[in-house]
Write a structure and sequence with these properties.
Blueprint lengths: L1 H12 L15 H4 L1 E2 L8 E2 L8 E4 H7 L4 H5 L5 E4 L2 E4 L11 E5 L2 E2 L18 E8 L3 H4 L6 E7 L7 E10 L3 E11 L4 E13 L6 E15 L2 E15 L6 H6 L12 E18 L2 E18 L8 E22 L2 E22 L2 E25 L2 E21 L5 E25 L2 E12 L3 H5 L16 E14 L2 E13 L2 E4 L2 H6 L5 E4 L3 E14 L3 E14 L7 E2 L6 E10 L4 E10 L18 E11 L4 E8 L9 E4 L4 E4 L5 E9 L1
Parallel strand pairs: 6-9
Antiparallel strand pairs: 1-2, 3-8, 4-5, 6-7, 8-9, 10-11, 10-36, 11-12, 12-13, 13-14, 14-15, 15-16, 16-17, 17-18, 18-19, 19-20, 20-21, 21-22, 22-23, 23-24, 24-27, 25-26, 27-28, 28-29, 28-30, 30-31, 31-32, 32-33, 33-36, 34-35
């Protein structure tokens, strides 16, 4: 591994002195890049935010050859991936998506039933920039933002008369990707835009496949001191899964898979209707609002057998609406008060089917109503070189679920109801000090409560002896952070120290009961004890004439400090994660990029008792190159995992065995695109 690190560093530094330094003002974009995540619509320069914010622009995404959102996020300080599960600052990988809000243009993408999100539904080609805010956003977006917010902002094309692009990408495992986009300004005030993306790809494992389609049409009308916009988005995806491998299977053929999975098909379709409104009402008062209505259909098909043909074992339909509105009142220069509120409502209908002999029957029918309402107040006050913010949010969640069970002959069996409501209050205090126009330091604290979501609530820990369900409490998380951002000549630096204290943290351990009482059934539960996460995040970029170098480093000590797992590390989380990267403009039209990501050892996912040795560390290096012709045509090519690292980023402990989920080896791609 150290040889690979050395080779990567050599490549990264080979052109370090290839050109003269350019003007310092051109480097300051990193500090002055605006971020809107922390205050919903208010744009604030990175240097004035009291969080360890990372902003990745669409231009950087394109130059670095990122093919999807996951690749763009891999080298963000504090973030890590395990088997497609995104975790921020030491969250258990299987729970990470429930503590992190992913937004697209300020609209949460997390499902209302399980609070999870799907990055596959977000085309990287449409991204203007990505804002990553650790421990931020809980005042605006609630308890689901316990560990932070990722806001993905899509592109706008300004005053161009016409714009668009068409492209093709092919790669390993029969990958084929087509995309087309066309937009125009019909009048001085009215613009329209349409996009379509189609992807078809076999998986690394045999019998795995993914097909997806993305379509969008939108219109925007400019008002005096504002605008109104509408979008319709359709996402559709079909995919097959893969089985875990035993150690013997992994050593024999890590690409093998259970043949039944080629017919276990998940089909997910979403239709979104989005309305946005922004208006400056007076010199010191403005209104911003967004509403999204979403229809989602999910089906999961089981394979055919000798007794019956394939059938949908799950059919789930969700209709939901989300709206967020806020007023911003500027009561002095650089001082303002934001009043806001949001409302969510969803209805989920789900049929569960099973087979008895040659008969397929409806086993359950579930109907769930979910409702959430929140209000928040955020004040920003500037005094000399200080910037202070204070925030408070009160939110109430309510859900009601009816589940009807049926016998194999289709007759009624039983019915049960689960309902709950709770109210949480979140707080935040921050202070930012501007040492100079190029350097700032900050300190922040927030307290966030998160109640169990519907999926967690209905699968909660039950005492096997008494049949009683344990108390479902909101978890409480306090985050303390101190950090600094600075531009020193041609070097950008940022760093943060954080301490996270959790109480009654919501966990899920599938094999917890098997270890304790041999029942073999897992569940969600409030951890009977506290957790601590202590960490250091460092990031730097160095700018030269044609070369940009990047480094990031995260160290975390994550411990369960009392309860049944007292003194153990939180499983699935590496203590050390770091990344290296370089982008070199060989000419004004030809760009080369290399990027490496290292994950240190970690206890296996689900191994709360730290019973088995840690996983091996691994380091993956990707390279890419792109050439832009003057006529708008561009060609790109890349190699992922160029050193062919053999690793698993997702290994689970199953109480009596270890399950392996192999990660891909070396892969290739080429693409062509025309822009106008």
């Amino acid at each position: 591994m150290y040889k690979k690190i050395g080779i990567s560093v050599l490549i990264l530094s080979s052109s370090l002195y290839g050109g003269d330094l350019i003007k310092k003002e051109e480097f300051a974009v990193k500090l002055n890049e605006s971020t809107i995540t922390s205050e919903r619509y208010e744009e604030t320069p990175v240097i004035e935010t009291a969080k360890n914010v990372t902003v990745l622009t669409g231009k950087e995404i394109e130059k670095r050859g990122y093919k999807n959102v996951e690749e763009a996020l891999v080298n963000i300080p504090g973030l890590s991936f395990s088997g497609g599960n995104l975790s921020m600052r030491g969250q258990v990988p299987s729970m990470g998506s429930k503590h992190l809000v992913v937004l697209v243009d300020g609209i949460p993408q997390n499902g209302m039933d399980n609070r999870s999100f799907d990055l596959d539904f977000i085309p990287v080609e449409q991204i203007e920039k990505i804002e990553v805010v650790p421990a931020g956003g809980a005042i605006i977006y609630g308890g689901n933002a316990t560990s932070g917010v990722i806001n993905i902002i899509t592109k706008e094309h300004g005053d161009k008369k016409y714009w668009g692009n068409a492209g093709l990408q092919i790669g390993s495992f029969d990958e084929r990707k087509y995309k087309v986009n066309y937009g125009m300004n019909l009048t001085e005030n009215l613009s329209i835009d349409a996009k379509y993306i189609n992807t078809d790809k076999d998986g690394y494992r045999v019998y795995t496949k993914k097909e997806s389609e993305f379509g969008e049409i939108g219109a925007k009308y400019k008002l005096k001191d504002g605008n109104i916009g509408f979008k319709y988005i359709r996402n559709e995806r079909k995919s097959t899964g893969s089985s875990y491998l035993t150690k013997a299977q992994y050593d024999d053929d890590r690409r093998q898979n259970d043949s039944s999975y080629k017919e276990k098909i998940a089909h997910d379709t979403q239709d979104k209707y989005i309305l946005e409104f922004n208006k400056k009402l007076s010199d010191n008062l403005s209104l911003s609002a967004v509403t999204e209505y979403r229809e989602r259909e999910y089906t999961y098909s089981q394979p055919r057998t000798a007794a019956y043909s394939s059938y949908h074992s799950r059919v789930k339909n969700t209709d939901s609406i989300y709206t967020n509105a806020q007023l911003k009142y500027s009561y002095a220069e650089k001082n303002h008060l934001i009043f806001g509120g949001d409302y969510s409502k969803a209805k989920v209908k789900e049929d569960g089917y099973s087979a008895s002999g040659s008969t397929i029957y409806r086993k359950t029918y579930t109907e769930t109503d979910y409702e959430a309402i929140g209000g928040y107040l955020l004040n920003k006050y500037s005094y000399n070189n200080f910037i202070f913010t204070q925030g408070i949010r009160v939110e109430r969640n309510k859900f009601d679920e009816d589940e009807t069970s049926y016998n194999t002959n289709g007759t009624f069996k039983s019915k049960k109801n689960i309902s709950d409501s709770n109210t949480n209050t979140n707080y935040e205090l921050t202070a930012n000090y501007m040492f100079s126009e190029d350097t700032s330091g900050y300190i922040s604290w927030n307290r966030v409560y998160r109640s169990p979501n519907l999926t967690e609530y209905t699968s909660w820990k039950t005492d096997k002896a008494t049949g009683e369900t344990a108390s479902r409490d909101s978890q409480e998380v306090d985050t303390f952070e101190i950090g600094v951002k600075s531009l020193i000549n041609n070097i950008y630096l940022s760093g943060a120290l954080f301490y996270i204290k959790g109480n009654k943290e919501i966990m899920y351990d599938y094999y917890r009961d098997e270890i304790i009482d041999k029942s073999g059934s897992g569940s969600y539960y409030n951890l009977d004890g506290k957790t601590e996460r202590i960490g250091l995040e460092l990031a730097s970029e160095q700018y030269f004439d044609k070369l940009t170098l990047r480094e990031n480093f995260t160290y975390m000590h994550n411990e369960i400090v009392d309860g049944p797992y007292k003194g153990n590390d939180i499983p699935g989380v590496s203590n050390i994660v770091f990344g290296l990267g370089a982008t070199y403009d060989i000419t004004s039209q030809f760009t080369f990029n290399i990027e490496s990501n290292y994950h240190g050892k970690a206890y296996l996912i689900n191994d709360y008792y730290n019973k088995v040795p840690k996983t091996n560390s691994y380091m993956v290096t990707n390279i890419s190159a792109k050439y832009n012709f003057e006529n708008g045509v561009s060609l790109a090519a890349g190699i992922d995992n160029i050193f062919n690292e053999i690793y698993c980023d997702y290994i689970t402990y199953a109480g009596t065995k270890i399950n392996y989920s192999p990660s891909p080896e070396r892969t290739y791609y080429i693409s062509a695109e025309y822009k106008f």
